């Protein structure tokens, strides 16, 4: 092994200097030098995942939870390819992540190396591939280039999204000459935006303003500034589905949202979008109401709907300035927007209904608990029925909607925040990436995994049923007992099955009080239709009931 200060030592030193405290990844021959440089350091913990998607989700969840840059490391070949869906999620949701990806030694580029992804002589071109799922991607082919490429990668990631460095084994091992005055990335404060257009529109709005808060408020941690702005406008916000934690208890917009938002919007003099592009998932059901009111927007990227948009890359700085400019007089403040739930058609049969389970979870989770939600019918139900906790995170991967994200993301988030974190995931999502439960156990992270076992990819069952004449059962699985299975598999993991609503509260209490991770598998039905607007046709659900 090379003696002296290696390229990998430089990388790890500079990441530590930027405040990175965790490195997530999976080891392998072409990334072991990087792990070797990080191993044994007091200031960086290594968390080895079971799968590179899990590791990428950990880095994403770490960053979304407020830790700053999430760093993931993977080896060449299959390892690096497994990163793609995780980085795709971070790109779509603009989450700052750095991927350090091992490559075969440069002397073997295009010469039949094991796991050659150099792009030479017909080999898979990793630089082309990762350029498509990142804001910045470089293959480092000279040791000294690490100085600039790492600085550029950090700057790119800081703008919101993944950066990727492809690091051939020989480059990682190369000894660097002493480097004086390394360029540490500086995050310059974004200039204050020109708010004139939206200030004027807000001042002249003759009536209530509906505020819809989005994911950038979470990314910039501008929660307090959002409250300030809403106070100034006498407004209560709604949130998009993946920004529930910026206004805990507020109703949600879009396909998994609360229908009262559209009604309130219809009674408003203006709509102000804060830090969201309002993609289809977030705006389903709102198009008509949006078209009928002046719509204004502040955030780093213009929405997909027509607005008067004001670009603001730093909402923490911009929202107080906007609040000061639009403060309204003593008019009576508006009432909070109604949190009225959809009522899907009832389901008979065994198991616990989603709403019943989520209300039991709502009653059991104290303030400050973090929640991470996965895909599928149970994910939609959780977004609809379960409010974020005061001072708690609520993470969900709606960029790519990849099943199994919650397991890794919860590990990343809990590693940073040390909070009790609750994962809500279906059995299908568990089968994809649930082995990260073992990673949580290894690191004794305080995560309670609530696995909703309907023995099916139930969202696909619902679609078969509603849109394909009943379906052929292909999305239903065989029997399973996940709680008992995990308890037998992982000694030391409290893990139980719950079959009835009656038994759920006690199981939740015990699981939440555990030291370290715990599992509760909840029996539910593949035939239950979740509160997902696209599944509730006029015929099936004229029901839009108000629940306090
Ligand atoms: C990686 C991935 N593959 C496929 C899909 C399409 N898909 C969306 S929901 C779903 C089923 C989810 O099953 P489960 O996690 O058990 O939740 P349930 O719908 O049963 O509550 C599938 C296959 C997806 N979102 N992500
Ligand atoms: Mg399922």
TrEMBL record:
<protein>
    <recommendedName>
        <fullName>acetolactate synthase</fullName>
        <ecNumber>2.2.1.6</ecNumber>
    </recommendedName>
</protein>
<dbReference type="GO" id="GO:0000287">
    <property type="term" value="F:magnesium ion binding"/>
</dbReference>
<feature type="region of interest" description="Disordered">
    <location>
        <begin position="329"/>
        <end position="348"/>
    </location>
</feature>
<dbReference type="GO" id="GO:0009097">
    <property type="term" value="P:isoleucine biosynthetic process"/>
</dbReference>
<keyword id="KW-0786">Thiamine pyrophosphate</keyword>
<keyword id="KW-0274">FAD</keyword>
<dbReference type="InterPro" id="IPR012001">
    <property type="entry name" value="Thiamin_PyroP_enz_TPP-bd_dom"/>
</dbReference>
<dbReference type="GO" id="GO:0030976">
    <property type="term" value="F:thiamine pyrophosphate binding"/>
</dbReference>
<comment type="pathway">
    <text>Amino-acid biosynthesis; L-isoleucine biosynthesis; L-isoleucine from 2-oxobutanoate: step 1/4.</text>
</comment>
<dbReference type="InterPro" id="IPR045229">
    <property type="entry name" value="TPP_enz"/>
</dbReference>
<keyword id="KW-0100">Branched-chain amino acid biosynthesis</keyword>
<dbReference type="InterPro" id="IPR011766">
    <property type="entry name" value="TPP_enzyme_TPP-bd"/>
</dbReference>
<dbReference type="Pfam" id="PF02775">
    <property type="entry name" value="TPP_enzyme_C"/>
</dbReference>
<dbReference type="GO" id="GO:0003984">
    <property type="term" value="F:acetolactate synthase activity"/>
</dbReference>
<keyword id="KW-0808">Transferase</keyword>
<feature type="domain" description="Thiamine pyrophosphate enzyme TPP-binding">
    <location>
        <begin position="374"/>
        <end position="522"/>
    </location>
</feature>
<dbReference type="GO" id="GO:0050660">
    <property type="term" value="F:flavin adenine dinucleotide binding"/>
</dbReference>
<dbReference type="InterPro" id="IPR029035">
    <property type="entry name" value="DHS-like_NAD/FAD-binding_dom"/>
</dbReference>
<keyword id="KW-0285">Flavoprotein</keyword>
<dbReference type="Pfam" id="PF02776">
    <property type="entry name" value="TPP_enzyme_N"/>
</dbReference>
<feature type="domain" description="Thiamine pyrophosphate enzyme N-terminal TPP-binding">
    <location>
        <begin position="7"/>
        <end position="116"/>
    </location>
</feature>
<comment type="pathway">
    <text>Amino-acid biosynthesis; L-valine biosynthesis; L-valine from pyruvate: step 1/4.</text>
</comment>
<dbReference type="GO" id="GO:0009099">
    <property type="term" value="P:L-valine biosynthetic process"/>
</dbReference>
<keyword id="KW-0028">Amino-acid biosynthesis</keyword>
<dbReference type="InterPro" id="IPR029061">
    <property type="entry name" value="THDP-binding"/>
</dbReference>
<comment type="similarity">
    <text>Belongs to the TPP enzyme family.</text>
</comment>
<dbReference type="GO" id="GO:0005948">
    <property type="term" value="C:acetolactate synthase complex"/>
</dbReference>
């Amino acid at each position: 092994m090379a003696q002296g200060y290696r390229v990998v030592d430089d990388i790890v030193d500079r990441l530590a200097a930027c405040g990175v405290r965790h490195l997530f990844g999976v080891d392998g021959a072409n990334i072991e030098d990087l792990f070797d440089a990080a191993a044994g350091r007091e200031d960086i913990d290594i968390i080895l995942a079971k799968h590179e998607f899990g590791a990428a989700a950990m880095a994403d969840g770490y960053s979304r939870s407020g830790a700053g840059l999430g760093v993931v490391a993977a080896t060449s070949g299959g390892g690096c390819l497994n990163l793609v869906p995780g980085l795709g999620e971070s790109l779509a949701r603009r989450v700052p992540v750095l991927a350090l990806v091992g490559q075969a030694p440069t002397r073997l580029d295009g010469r039949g190396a094991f796991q050659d992804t150099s792009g030479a002589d017909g080999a898979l071109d990793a630089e082309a591939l990762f350029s498509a799922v990142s804001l910045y991607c470089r293959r480092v082919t000279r040791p000294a280039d690490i100085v600039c490429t790492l600085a550029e990668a950090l700057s790119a990631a800081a703008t919101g999204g993944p950066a990727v460095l492809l690091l051939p084994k020989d480059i990682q091992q190369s000894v660097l000459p002493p480097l004086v005055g390394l360029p540490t990335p500086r995050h310059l404060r974004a200039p204050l935006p020109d708010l004139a257009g939206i200030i004027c529109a807000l001042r002249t709005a003759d009536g209530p303003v509906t505020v819809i808060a989005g994911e950038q408020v979470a990314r910039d941690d501008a929660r307090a500034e959002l409250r300030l702005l809403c106070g100034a406008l006498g407004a209560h916000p709604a949130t998009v589905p993946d920004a529930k934690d910026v206004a805990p208890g507020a109703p949600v917009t879009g396909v998994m949202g609360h229908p009262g938002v559209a009604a309130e919007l219809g009674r408003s003099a203006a709509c102000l979008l804060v830090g969201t592009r309002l993609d289809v998932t977030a705006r389903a059901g709102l198009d008509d109401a949006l078209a009928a009111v002046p719509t204004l927007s502040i955030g780093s990227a213009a929405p997909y709907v027509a607005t008067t948009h004001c670009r603001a890359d730093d909402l923490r700085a911009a929202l107080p300035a906007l609040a000061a400019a639009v403060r309204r007089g003593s008019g009576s403040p508006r009432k909070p927007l109604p949190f009225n739930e959809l009522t899907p058609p009832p389901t008979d049969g065994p198991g616990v209904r989603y709403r019943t389970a989520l209300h039991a979870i709502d009653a059991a989770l104290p303030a400050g608990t973090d929640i991470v939600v996965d895909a599928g019918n149970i994910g939609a139900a959780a977004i609809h029925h379960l409010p974020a906790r005061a001072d708690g995170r609520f993470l969900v991967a709606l960029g790519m909607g990849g099943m199994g994200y919650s397991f890794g993301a919860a590990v990343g988030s809990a590693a940073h925040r040390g909070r009790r974190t609750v994962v809500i995931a279906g059995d299908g999502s568990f089968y994809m990436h649930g082995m990260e439960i073992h990673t949580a156990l290894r690191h004794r992270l305080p995560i309670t995994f609530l696995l909703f076992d309907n023995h099916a990819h139930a969202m696909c069952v619902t679609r078969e049923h509603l849109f394909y004449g009943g379906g052929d059962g292909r999305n239903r699985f065989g029997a399973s007992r996940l709680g008992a299975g995990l308890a037998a598999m992982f000694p030391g993991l409290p893990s139980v099955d719950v079959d009835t609503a009656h038994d759920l509260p006690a199981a939740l209490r015990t699981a939440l009080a555990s030291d370290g991770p715990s599992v509760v598998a909840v029996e539910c039905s593949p035939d239950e239709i979740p509160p997902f607007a696209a599944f509730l046709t006029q015929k099936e659900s004229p029901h839009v009931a108000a629940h306090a």
